[in-house]
Amino acid sequence: MTSDRPDVLTRIAGVLAVVAHPDDESFGLGAVLSELVMADAWAGAICFTHGEASTLHGTPGALFTVRSQELQAAGTELRLSRVELHRYPDSHLDAVPVEELAGHVLRVIREEHPSHLLVFDSDGVTGHPDHRRATQAALTAARAAGLPVLAWALPEAVAQRLNAELGTAFTGRDQTELDIELTVNRDRQWRAIARHRSQAVDNPVLLRRLELLGDREHLRLIHPALQKGNTMSYGITVRLPAPFASTVTRVRDALREQGVGVLTEIDVQATLREKLGTQMEDYLILGACNPPLAHQALDADRDIGLLLPCNVVVRADGPHATLVQALDPQVMVQVTGRPELTAVAEEATARLRAALNALAG
Q: Are 240 and 182 contained in the same domain?
């Protein structure tokens, strides 16, 4: 196992994967789990649903049993020491209180003592709300237990390629947001995938994703936030091959499509020219807000207004390109340390990332 962050990986004595559906542990996390097991780390998984809502190869009633059996068989192939499956309703996991789900994770943490949790990226990677909820539960448990959380993520280029070719809704990360790159052997992952026959047969999206990734997987350290030098990664960025003025209009439209309005606007270039007589590139700060999410955040912590609205920066990057940067709402949770803000931050992150992905698509 190789990585550009060996100091993180060598501390993984045990890892608990927290997922929403049977096959998430294999289709998404399988190669990473396999590498850790081969490096003599303990590995286990907790899955919240039976995946009975899948539209692939079966009726919901039959899938409830079939996918349970497939999960156990895949866990054996991956050499997982523990596989725990719950009966929460598939596709409705976001209706379950996050504290309830986190309680199951905390119990396994107390019993097995993993050094890390492994999850899907905070936006769910595929956009599925069940994935996001499982990650929220893991983060809530991790904060209570003081454990680090590694999130499996896709490079932005891979996500965009899949979406363009297959009409999927994958979300990707810029290379600057990916903390760990692994070189992996997929043999054991492929054997685990084959055990999920109800989902793996005739699955071109899975095959194409693994083809594009090759022998590489990517992770983010999402709890605690990875320190890069002496700074914390706190933004989501896309670079567009388009001029500044037209990009501003597109940004407003993309935010509106995600239910995010612009409450404030600061023209930094004009302000500095007027007040200081200095010159700089076109630089606009938009104060973005989704009122229902802002209301939830303020109900949880009145002081959170100090971090609202969520700033989106549009700035020229040369004559023919523009950078669009959004403040990562996860900063609210990181700064305040309040787990009750997790769900709000995750939803806001998903909306902002969807807007930026639409711009780049």
A: no
Which residue type sits at 84? E
Q: Which residues contact 1 (CB under 8 A, 6 or more apart)?
A: 9, 35, 36, 38, 39, 182, 183, 184
Report whether pLDDT(332) > 80.
no
Whole-angstrom Cα distance, residue 152 to residue 14? Answer: 16
Quick check: 139 and 223 in contact, CB under 8 A? yes
pTM, full prediction: 0.66
Say what the alpha-carbon torsion angle 304, 307, 310, 313 is, to the nearest 10 degrees. 180
pLDDT at 226: 46
- Provide the 8-state DSSP code for 3: -
Q: Residue 236 phi/psi, 5° resolution?
A: -120, 125
Question: Do residues 210 and 162 touch, judged by C-beta distance below 8 A?
Answer: no
Q: Are 171 and 41 in the same domain?
A: yes
| Amino acid (1-letter code) at residue 165 | E
The SS3 call for residue 8 is: helix
Site of tokens 């542990």: 25
CATH number, domain containing residue 244: 3.30.310.70
Strand spans (E) along 20-102? 42-49, 82-88
**Structural domain ending residue among the three candidates 197, 229, 261:** 229
Tokens at 282, concatenated = 């076109």
Contact 181, 3 (CB under 8 A): yes
Asked whether residue 1 carries a pLDDT value surpassing 90, the answer given is: no
Token pair for 40: 């003599």
Distance CA 143, CA 145 (A): 5
Please give the average per-residue pLDDT across 111-129, as a whole number: 93
Q: Is the pLDDT of residue 102 over 70?
A: yes
Taking only the tens place, the pLDDT of each residue in 211-245 is 999 999 999 998 875 444 444 456 778 888 899 99
Q: What is the pLDDT of residues 333-352, one digit of tens each?
A: 767 777 788 888 888 988 99
